[in-house]
Amino acid sequence: MNYYLKESILYTYNQKNAGNKARDDVNAILASLHYSPISVSIKEDTIEPLGKRAHFYKYRIFKKAFSPLKSGDNLLIQFPIINHTIFFSRVLKQLRKKGIKVFVLIHDLESLRFANDKRHLSLKHRLRLWLQEMTVLKNADRIIVHNDKMKAVLIQKKIDAQKLSSLDIFDYLIPKYKGGKIATVAKDLPLVIAGNLAAEKSGFLYHLPKTPQFNLYGVGYDDQNTANISYKGSFFPDELPFHLSGSFGLVWDGPSADTCTGMFGDYLRFNNSHKASLYLASGLPVIVWSESALADFVKKNHCGISVSSLFELDEKMRQLSEKDYQVLLQGAKKIGQSIRAGLFLKKQL
Question: 2-167: what fold?
Answer without folding.
Answer: Rossmann fold (3.40.50)
